[in-house]
Specification:
15-stranded mixed sheet; Endonuclease, Chain A; 17 helices
């Protein structure tokens, strides 16, 4: 009898307390007012089930978990850096810099851990037919160390070539470390890790998941692509190790991409990034001159460069800040080449602002995409940038996986990052910003080659699509934070 009297009271207290605690958590943790209002309404209007749904899907465990796993990483020892690579005012490094460029560089200096370096040489390697031979040649010439990380490392024609090069390096006494993302490792059979183990090549998997089959695009992925040889030469960009990057591959697996070779002091920054990831994944701290040789500015090299590290931990939002700051300094031109274009509202506004200021803003996307739902979500957002003067071009032929941003003929930005929430919020990425008119000019020529056969789409094109397509794309866009 007593229980019958207490049950309604207990139920009433819980019906208020549970949504109350959930609402408090929402107010203390959510940074977006629309998200906070939506979740608060759900936990109060759908008693018990709303709060349970919030606990399962609304609590941001991504950053919390990333911070936790990074805190468990052994701290890397400090490494001496040549005085010439320390950050001086940009005007000293790059006399042609204007006030907006200097402001951008100062902003990135404040929010990033890595400093601008001078005396670097950067070369763009367009396509696997150019990049892979250069990377394999560098591994073959290695005398002391090879560090390689890739999101995808397939056991196919390209993968076998890299596997043989790494095996040969180990056999001649070179210290080799290979880091593969645990989800990216699932893309081919047999697993490349199986073959690395067979050939006794030291490797580790990044952030191993116990239930990878439940979600093919799990968060907290190491999306970085880095090859560092003898601590002096580095390759980075968006190119995975897979045969689809070769031009003679036909069908949907054919890929177009750009990789970059870097020589000079900025290579030390790439090595630091790899070493931190390796320490987390393998528990080994890489030390010594073989991994960290003394680097000084190269004679005659003119590129001022800085690595930018991003991830859902203490490095969160650094790439997003870099993009927003670069757009704010644009006065003449902006060129964006990306395979996945699902920017948030702030980036959309920054693109529109650059166009309204008079800059020519060109967004170059692949006409066909390897991720259909992502392509639909991207199409839904295109009117948002077209209506203020940005121009959008679709490139035919091979799927273009290139990732590139160019501003005012001076500043270039490349690496592993896509223009979507997964890259900018959920994955570990590495990009490089460069101040160099000659490098930017060469990259603009590369982008212009894409435009020769590209099809420009207008605001009218997007507005006059069938209603069914608009609804399909809109539904896909609703899931854009998870794509």
């Amino acid at each position: 009898m007593l229980w019958d009297q207490l049950l309604p009271i207990v139920g009433g207290v819980l019906a208020i307390a549970i949504p109350g605690f959930a609402s408090a958590h929402i107010l203390l943790t959510k940074r977006d007012v629309r998200s906070a209002i939506g979740w608060t309404g759900l936990v109060w209007l759908v008693p018990f089930f709303g709060a349970s749904f919030y606990v399962l899907f609304g609590v941001n465990r991504i950053r919390r978990r990333a911070v936790r796993v990074r805190s468990e990483t052994p701290r890397l020892p400090p490494h001496e850096v040549a005085p010439a690579t320390l950050y001086p005012p940009l005007k000293q490094l790059f006399p042609a810099a204007n006030e907006d460029m200097i402001a951008h560089a100062e902003l990135m200096n404040r929010i990033g851990d890595l400093t601008l370096t001078t005396g670097n040489r950067v070369d763009a390697l367009d396509g696997g037919d150019t990049a892979f031979p250069a990377m394999l040649e560098a591994i073959a010439a290695a005398k002391h160390t090879v560090a390689l990380t890739s999101y995808i490392f397939d056991y196919d024609r390209a993968g076998k070539q890299f596997l043989q090069a790494l095996k040969s390096a180990v056999e001649r006494g070179v210290e080799v470390r290979v880091l593969i993302d645990s989800v990216g490792n699932l893309y081919s059979r047999p697993r490349i890790t199986t073959m690395l183990a067979r050939d006794r090549i030291p490797y580790a998997r990044f952030n191993v998941s116990t239930v990878p089959w439940r979600m093919a695009y799990m968060n907290l992925r190491c999306h970085r692509k880095l090859l560092i040889v003898d601590g002096r030469t580095a390759f980075t960009g968006g190119m995975n190790i897979r045969e689809g990057n070769y031009a003679d591959v036909s069908g949907r697996s054919a890929i177009r991409d750009i990789q970059f070779r870097m020589d000079g002091p900025v290579v030390a920054q790439a090595m630091e990034v790899f070493a931190e990831d390796w320490a987390f994944a393998a528990g080994e701290v890489l030390e010594g001159d073989a991994w960290y040789p003394q680097l000084t500015p190269l004679e005659g090299a003119t590129t001022v460069a800085r690595g930018i590290v991003d991830g859902p931990d203490e490095d969160i939002d650094k790439l997003r800040w870099a993009i927003l700051s670069a757009l704010s300094m644009a006065s003449e031109s902006v060129t964006v080449v990306t395979p996945y274009f699902i920017p948030d509202n702030t980036i959309v506004a920054a693109l529109n602002q650059a166009a309204l200021k008079g800059a020519e803003v060109r967004i170059i996307l692949p006409e066909t995409n390897n991720l259909r739902v992502v392509n639909w979500a991207s199409r839904f957002q295109l009117p948002f940038v077209l209506e203020q003067g940005c121009r959008v071009f679709l490139t035919p032929g091979r799927f273009d996986h290139s990732k590139l941003m160019l501003v005012d003929g001076v500043w270039s930005f490349f690496g592993s990052t896509n223009w979507d929430a997964r890259s900018l919020r959920l994955n570990f990425e590495f990009n490089v910003e460069c101040f160099d008119p000659e490098l930017t000019r060469r990259l603009e020529e590369n982008a212009n080659k894409r435009l020769q056969k590209a099809r420009e789409i207008s605001l009218d094109d997007m507005r006059h699509r069938p209603v069914g397509q608009k609804l399909r794309d809109g539904i896909a866009w609703l899931f854009s934070p998870y794509l």
